[in-house]
Amino acid sequence: MASIDIQSIRKSFGTFPVLHGVDLTIRDGEFIVLVGPSGCGKSTLLRMIAGLEGVTSGDIRIDGKRVNDLAPKDRDIAMVFQSYALYPHMSVADNMSYSLRLRRTAKEKIASAVGNAASKLGLDPLLERRPRALSGGQRQRVAMGRAIVRQPKAFLFDEPLSNLDARLREQMRAEIKKLHADLRATSIYVTHDQIEAMTLADRIVAMHAGVVQQVGTPLDLYDRPANLFVAGFIGSPGMNFFEGLYVVSGEKAELRLANGTVLPVGKRAGIESGSVATLGIRPEHVTLNDQGALEADVDLIEPTGFGIIMHVTLHDGPLKIFTLDRSMLNPGPKVRVDLPLERLHLFGSDGNRVD
Amino acid sequence: MRTSKLLLTVAHRLAILAYIVVALFPLFWLLKVSVTPNDLLYSEGVRMWPSRATFEHYTFVIAHSAFPTFFKNSLIVAGSTAIAVTILASLAGYALSRFNFRAKYWIVALMLITQMFPLVMLVAPIFKMLSPLGLTNSLTGLVIVYTAFNVPFATFLMQSFFDGIPKDLEEAAMIDGATQFIAFRQIILPLTLPGIAATLGFVFTAAWSELLFALMLISGNDAATFPVGLLTFVSKFSVDFGQMMAAGILALIPACLFFLLIQRYLVQGLTAGAVKG
């Protein structure tokens, strides 16, 4: 197991830059999730750590040793691919033992390592099969098994669950978490699925357009998103935003929207009165209340079984509300809502959080 | 609905049948003439099968003509060419499929250009080049020429097979501890067996039946290949059709055997895309 240190890493494909200076320190045994929309550079960063992509500038250190110029085979890392990348002409056992055979490990050692990994992942009855005779979930398990037989310095996961159906994904997610608790191996996991990011990560690295937006624990990102991108990306249904002018009057502050609506917000130190700001509130934090300060027109009700997502219009602007109150299945044409002050997020005109 | 479907099936089968008849009729005629005794060849008119069949042409060709030498020469030339081309084309095709290098575009363009000239144009220069090297009238010279002419197409063929294999596989192998070459040999090559079989088959048949260069570069019977040898059955005054056809039938045998041997991989190649990588 090892720490991984990434210092001002840049990557360009030709003249097209995809990573603009990423700094990240991953502690020994930590589970890091790189999350972001397609094309944000998260997979490229992972592949650079693996040695599958060259580094344009900056340094990558694994266990204190600079690995920029090392071939993938010399970095002692294991990787699980989205496509699983199982060798089709080898049995499950041979797939799992390939790395050990390449290292000319003794036969008895290989057998015990494969046996251990197989029993951990429930693969014992499948060892003689070819990958084509396996289901998607089983292939996924073999790919994991191939990674863990070797006890590498770090595990890299490149969207490993994206090809599975929802039920299986949930199950494998839990298994990966259990496996990590068991092995305490340094892991870097790339996904665009924020649920996977929230549930698995010790720390999440949110990326957008080749730039790290925020690094923190899952709850950090949820409770105190550093900017508009993180605020909008983390959470489902996504956060509501209102843009307006931030105006201070005495001890109070408010946001004046273009349509004339005035929303009270707490007074903040980091922003001047009269500047443009964006207010954010999560759908689950909007409260429904007969005495609520704001009136909204109901547009659409989406029952999810667990709760209800309501789409309403608040003074010409759309607002999503998430509630567990089943009586809201038939709310009537109008509802009254409150936006609790302590739940409001405020972002300056540069998109960064203001406290 | 059902009748139209039936009609469609019948029409489909008839079309295939017509194609097969047209394609195989010359082969049938080859066989027919090869077993027709000389005295019946011109006396019976056009018949589908002679009134009396004989193997005398076969025994003559095998026992009394230089055909066994031609056959052996062809086997050596076609076999060596097929193996040499397949090795070169696998390596080149892999490079074109996986690597980005500076002159890649120009190399591909040059390889395409070599395919544009009619061979007749090149016979004289090639003769001129090989002659001082002592490679005319030698099987080695033929193998070199055939290899050179078959490598470009075979390379493109192999490249398309490599393109069909996900890059993830060798990346996984490289992370597992393989060098790029070991990943190529242990992971990628076994998966390209259908492509290798197709290339082997294609090059083997091309070299087996090549006439022009064999005719120009080889003189005398010792180094003649089978297509050149066939011409020895044509003399100034007559054409020995029976023996020529018997030799032709015999020459088909290795090609058929070869395809029987590799057809398992060819069929695999056709269905390879069905399995998700």
Automatic annotation (TrEMBL), chain A:
Q: Which Gene3D superfamilies match?
A: 2.40.50.100, Nucleic acid-binding proteins (2.40.50.140), P-loop containing nucleotide triphosphate hydrolases (3.40.50.300)
Q: Which residues form the ABC transporter domain?
A: 4-234
Q: Which UniProt keywords apply?
A: ATP-binding, Nucleotide-binding, Transport
Q: Where in the cell is it found?
A: Cell inner membrane
**What SUPFAM superfamilies does this protein's entry cite?**
MOP-like (SSF50331), P-loop containing nucleoside triphosphate hydrolases (SSF52540)
Q: How does it sit in the membrane?
A: Peripheral membrane protein
Name the InterPro entries on file: AAA+_ATPase, ABC_transporter-like_ATP-bd, ABC_transporter-like_CS, ABC_transpr_MalK-like, ABC_transpr_MalK/UgpC-like, Mo/tungstate-bd_C_term_dom, NA-bd_OB-fold, P-loop_NTPase
Q: Name one GO molecular function term.
A: ATP binding
What biological processes does GO assign it? carbohydrate transport
Which SMART domains does this UniProt record tie to the protein? AAA
Please provide, in alphabetical order, the Gene Ontology terms of the cellular component aspect for this entry: ATP-binding cassette (ABC) transporter complex, substrate-binding subunit-containing
Entry's family note: Belongs to the ABC transporter superfamily.
User: What is the protein's given name?
Assistant: sn-glycerol-3-phosphate ABC transporter ATP-binding protein UgpC
In its UniProt entry, the species of origin is given as Shinella kummerowiae
* Organism ancestry: Bacteria, Pseudomonadati, Pseudomonadota, Alphaproteobacteria, Hyphomicrobiales
Gene name in the database record: ugpC
Automatic annotation (TrEMBL), chain B:
Specify the ABC transmembrane type-1 domain's residue ranges. 71-262
Q: Which Pfam families match?
A: BPD_transp_1
Tell me the superkingdom of the source.
Bacteria
State the compartments where it is located: Cell membrane
Q: Which GO terms describe its cellular component?
A: plasma membrane
Q: Which InterPro entries match?
A: BP-dep_ABC_trans_perm, MetI-like, MetI-like_sf
Keywords from the named record: Cell membrane, Membrane, Transmembrane, Transmembrane helix, Transport
Residues passing through the membrane, by range: 12-31, 75-96, 105-127, 139-162, 183-205, 211-234, 246-267
GO biological process per UniProt: transmembrane transport
The membrane topology of this protein is: Multi-pass membrane protein
Q: Which PANTHER family match?
A: INNER MEMBRANE ABC TRANSPORTER PERMEASE PROTEIN YCJP (PTHR32243:SF18), MALTOSE TRANSPORT SYSTEM PERMEASE-RELATED (PTHR32243)
As for family, the record states: Belongs to the binding-protein-dependent transport system permease family.
Name used for this protein in its record: ABC transporter permease subunit
Organism of provenance: Shinella kummerowiae
